[in-house]
Amino acid sequence: MRQRAASGQFGDFKASALYCPRCKRAMPVRSRLLLILPDGELHEYLCQACASSLGTKTVRQAQESQLFMP
Length: 70
Ligand SMILES: [Zn+2]
Known about the structure:
This protein has strands at residues 17-20, 25-37, 40-47, 53-60. The chain has a domain at 18-60. 0% of the residues lie in helices and 47% in strands. A four-stranded antiparallel beta sheet has the order 1-2-3-4, with no helix packed on it. It has 70 residues and is an all-beta fold. It is elongated, with a radius of gyration of 14 Å. Zinc ion is lined by residues 20, 22-23, 27, 47, 49-50, 52.
């Protein structure tokens, strides 16, 4: 079974605009790779105008065919 964890701050949606507290409105964002995790990547979203960090998101790798059985 595929585990669709809703643990990420933004779930599964593709963030193209997020509310920026500094700009006081929804701003286009750019994503930055923060960390490579064993099961995915951690991305950070930055406001394109002021470069404030607006949040992070874990992108899990879809490796359904490679199940590791201990
Ligand atoms: Zn901003």
